[in-house]
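Work package 3, deliverable 3.1, input record:
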Amino acid sequence: MRTTSRRFHTQVREALGNDTLRTSLDGVRRVMPQIRAAAVDQCDDFSALCARAEAVRRDALLRLDQLLEKFEQKVIESGGHVHWARNGQEATEIIADLCAAAGGRRIIKSKSMVSEEIELNPALETAGYDVTETDLGEYIIQLRGEKPSHILAPSLHVTLEEVGEAFHAHHDIERDTPPTEAGEMLLEARGVLREKFLSADVGITGANFLVAETGGAVIVTNEGNADLTMSLPDTHIVVTGIEKVVPSLADTGTLLRVLARSAIGERLSNYTTFVHGPRQAGEISGPRKFHVVLVDNGRSALLGSEFHDMLRCIRCSACLNHCPVYTAVGGHAYGSVYSGPMGAVLTPAFAGLPGTVHLPAASTFCGHCEAVCPVGIPLVQLLRRWREKSFSQSLPAAGERFGLRVWRFVNRWPTVYRAVTTFGAMVIRSLSVPGSDRRRWIKRLPFPGGAWTQHRDMPAPAANSFQTRWRQRRSGRES
Amino acid sequence: MTNRSARDEIMSSIRSGLEKFAKAPEPVQQAVAERAKMPDRESLIETFRHFAAEEAATSERVDGSADVPRAVVQYLLANALPLEVIAAGQIISGRPDWNRAGELDIVDRPIRADGDTVVTGCFAGLAESGAVVTISSPDFPNELQFLAATHIVVVPAGRIFADYESFWQIAGQEFATGMPRSMNWIVGPSRTADLGVPSRLGAHGPSRLHLLIVNEPGVDERGGDEPGVDE
Amino acid sequence: MTDSEPVKTVALFVTCLVDLYRPDVGFAAVRLLEQAGFDVSVPDQGCCGQSNFNSGDRDGARQMATGIIERFSGYDYVVTPSGSCAAMIRRHYPALFDEESQGREAALALAEKTWELTSFLVDRAGLETVEATLDASVTYHDACSGFHELGIREQPRRLLSSVSGLELQEMEQSDQCCGFGGLFCIKYPQISNRIVESKLDAIRATGADYVVAGDVGCMMQIEGKLHRLGETQIRVVHVAEILADSLADTLAGNSDADD
C-alpha cells in the first residue's frame, strides 16, 4: 500500500492551518461521541452486544481458511465466481480483466476502502474506463481529485461551497454561478448519478461482511447507492478483504447491532443488503455475472502475529471519531487511506514501518479508541507494539533515544535520580521569571524543551523537591 | 473460476498464521434478550413503528387488504403526489381490491425518470430496528424500490419479527432451497450527511418511505404464522 | 479501624512531576492519608517508567520497574496522586516480566496493592467526606489513564461534593484528552497545542474558577496554555490540594519556600 505518511509533519502543519477543516473536525469531536453515547444508552447492555460481536469476529479469524473455502463453494453454487488476489496489483489486474470481459466502458462504484487501498480507480481509468463513484462523499472527492479523509465520511474536509464549485466545474449544466444550497446540490447529484446508474456496464462494490454459510456479501449504506450499483449493471464485482468472512447469516445480525450504533449512533443503517450470486432463473433484472475478488494484500501475514487482533476491525470509525489526534488534524495528515487509531495500527502493517513511524508515534494513548471499539481491539497496546518495534529499529530521533537511555540510567539509583533532578530543576528554574500569580514561569526553554514553550509557558520547578522537603521534615522532627 | 496459485498461496499463508492457535471450537449461537420489551404483538408493532419513524419513515395501521388501495390514494393526495403507482411484485397484480380504487393508475413499466411511486409488499418487518425486509424474485425486480422517489410498503402485521434471531429462524426455513439474489433491509428513506448536517433525504433512493401495516394475516403471498412473540 | 488492629502502612509513590514541580500535592496527599488513619512513608524513589514504556523501551521500563518494586514492597498499600502512574504499576508492571518469573510475582503483588489517591480513599478506605472549604466553582478534568485504565470518575467527584462551599460545574466532554500524552506534547507540539485549545474552550464555557485534575502532567499542559494566553484568572489545581484544604499554601506560592 502506498502512503505519504513520511510527510506527516508537513501534512499536519497544512491541516492545522486549515480553518474550515478545523470547524468540521470540531463538529466530529463534539457531536459523534454524543450520538454514539445516546444510542448506547438506549441499549439494555451495549457492552454485552460488543462482547458477542467480538466473539464472532475472533472465532471467524481462527477458522478463516475453512470459512473462506465454504464461502467460495457457496458462491460458485449460486452461479458466481471467486477470485483471489495476493496483493493490490493482482486485484486491479483481475478486476480490469473482468471489466474487459463485461464489455462496455462505464463503471460505477459504491464505497470500498479496499479499492482505495489498492488504488483501483487510477488503474481502471488508465485502462480507458469511465469510473464514477456513487457514494456522494466519494463522488465529491473524485471530482476534486482527492483522497478520503475519513473512512465513512470521505469528504468531511470539503465545505458546501467547495462542493458547489466542484459540481459547477464538472456537471454539464447551463448556469452562471455555482449552486449554493445543499438541497439544490442533492437534486443535481441525484440526477447526474442517476444517468450513470442507468447506463453502467459494471458495478463494483465493497462488502462489509461475507457469509460463509450461504456465500453472501453484506453491503451497508445510507444512500442506497450500493443497491443501485449492484442491481442495474449486468456485471457486479465485489472487492473486499479476506478477513471479512463470518460463519452465518445470524452472525451478521450480531455485528450489525454494533456497527451502526458505533459509527453514527443509529440502530441500523438505512440500507443493509444481503446479495447472493447473479440473476436467478425467471428474474428479469439483476446482474448476470457476479464476481467476488478476495484481497489479501498483507492481511494473512497479520494472522497469528502480534497485530492479529487488528483483523477483527469492522471499519465502524468510532475510534476516529473519539480520537483527540484525528479530530485535531483529520485524515489527510496521516497520508494513508486508513487514518485515526485503526489507521495508525494498520498502515505500518500494510506499508512498512520506517515510512509510517509517525502514525503510531503521534498518539497520546488516551485510550478512548479502545474504550469505544465494538469488537474489543486493544488499540493502545497495538500502537505501543509498533513503538517497541520502532525503538528496537532505532527509528525515533537520536535525541529521543538518548534521552530515554539517560532517564533509564538516572533512575537506577535514587541518589543519582535526586542529584540529577535537583540539578536539572535548578537549571530550568533559573530560566523562570515571576508571574502575576506569585508563581514563577518559563517563557522559553532550550532544546528539547523548546517544543513545550513554542505554545505554552512552563511553571517553574519547585525550589526544593518533595523528597528533599520530606527528608528535611523527618530529620527536623527527629532532632 | 479461481486463479489457483494465488488461492493456494493465500490459503497457505492463512494456515501458517493460524498454526499457533489451538483448534477453534464451533461457535455457539447466542440468543438475544430484547424481546422482554415487546411482550405482545401490539407493543411489537408499536416498537416497529416508533423505530421506523425515528428514521423518517411514516407508517399507518390498516385493517385489511381491502383498505390498502384507499390508504395509498390518501397518502398520495396528502403528499401532493400524482395518483399513479408502479406495480411491483404480487402485491397488486391480480388482486381485485385494487381495481376498486378507480382513481389510481396502476402501471407496469421500468423506471427511468425520477419521481415515480412504487408499491411493494415485503418479506418481513424487524421491530428491533424498524426495518422492512424485501427480497428480489421473478415477480419483483427489486431495483424498482431504489429507483422510485416514493416507496410504499405493505407490511403484514403478522410478519413483523421482534428481533433478528427470530427472523433468521423463519428465513432459514423459507430459504432452505436457496437464498434470493438480493435481500434488502430498509429503514427509512435514503439519506446522506455528505452535504452537511442535518442529513438530507433522497440521496439516490426514495426520499419517502411509507409503511402500511395490515392487521389481516395472509396479505402477502407468503402468509404464515405469527412469528416472534411468544417463543 | 479499631484499636486492636495494627495501623496500615502506606508508601507514597510521589511521581516525578509532583516531586519536582508540585511538592505541595505530595504533602496534601500525605495529609489526606494520615487523616484517614494511615501511617505514611516515602521510600527513596524515582520514576515509574511510563515514558520509557510508552516510547517502546521495554527493557528500560522493566529496569525502572524492578527498582520501584523493590523499594515499595513491605507496605500494606502504595498510593500515588497520579492516575497514569497508578495505571503503570497496576496494569503494566506485571507484563514487563516473564510469566512464572519472580519478577512477575513481585510485580503482581505490588500491582494488587497500588492505588490512585482518590480511588484509594473512597474505594478502599471508605472515605465519604472531607473537612475542607472552598467557596468557588470548579470543573473536573478526567485524566485519561485514570479514567480509562482505572475507572476513576465518581471517586474524586464524591469527595469534592463534600467540600463546603464548592460548586462543581461539569465541562462538556470532561474525559477528552488534554493533549499532554507524556512525550507526545514535545514530539508533536502543534497537535498537542490544538488539542489543549479544544480543552480550554470546554473549560471556559463552564465559567469555573478552578480546573481540578488528578494528574500533574495534565495540570501543567492546561495551566501552561492558560498562562501563555494571559488567562490567569482560572486556576489549575490538584484534587488532593482541595480535599486536604491546603490550597491556601499553594496559592501563596509556598511551594517555593524552604521548610
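The helical segments of chain B are 4-18, 41-54, 68-78, 96-99, 144-147, 164-174.
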